[in-house]
Amino acid sequence: MAALLLFLAVVSTGLYAGFLLIFRTGIMPALARLTDEEFVTVMRRINEYVPKPVFLLVFLGVAVLPAAALFVPVDGRSDTQKWLVVAGLVTALANHLVTVTGNIPLNAALAASEAEGTPAATVRAAFEARWNRFHLLRTLLILASFVLLAASAVLADPAGPASA
């Protein structure tokens, strides 16, 4: 069961890391070329569309699955494997902390500015650079989490504890 949980942790973390990396390297650079009005409108629509069930399942899996893999008893798990999972979990939780305290409040302010009628140039100036800084940090954190969890999985004995 622990091996399956670790596998699912690696998969969910990899999916989320890939999503954030593509956003960082493809979507945001493309959006940076838009006018203020276009940029603000597109970011508002993205923020409305992304937090759907599939995304939320992956987002939550990034935190829940490594924790579950860590706390399921495993015969023969090395201290190195254990600490790699702990470090992967900690960096995933740090990613979520950045998202919840940095990106989500900026997304909420962006949405609120629509009803307030704030000019797009003002909205973009208050949003884009700060959001991108938080996004870079959370992308680096989740990439680190993915590498740490994958390393733990690679170190696992493929024959299982019975071969020891």
Summarize the structure.
The chain is an all-alpha fold.
Note down, in words, how this protein is organized.
With 164 residues, the protein is an all-alpha fold. It contains 5 helices and no strands. The chain has helices at 2-32, 36-49, 53-71, 79-116, 120-155. Helix 1 (2-32) runs antiparallel to helix 3, helix 2 packs across helix 5 (120-155) and helix 3 (53-71) packs antiparallel against helix 4 (79-116). The chain is elongated, with a radius of gyration of 19 Å. The mean pLDDT is 92.
Defining key terms:
164 residues; mainly alpha; 5 helices; 84% helix
| Class based on secondary structure composition and strand pairing | mainly alpha
Report the biggest beta sheet as strand number plus sense, adding barrel if it closes: none
Q: Which stretches are poorly predicted, pLDDT < 50 over at least 5 residues?
A: none
**What is the helix tally?**
5
Strand residues, percent: under 5%
Helix percent band = over 70%
Distance between the termini: 18 Å
Order of helix and strand elements from N to C terminus: HHHHH
Tally of extended strands? Answer: 0
What is the mean predicted local confidence, pLDDT? 92
The dominant shape is: elongated
Taking all Cα atoms into account, the compactness measure Rg is 19 Å
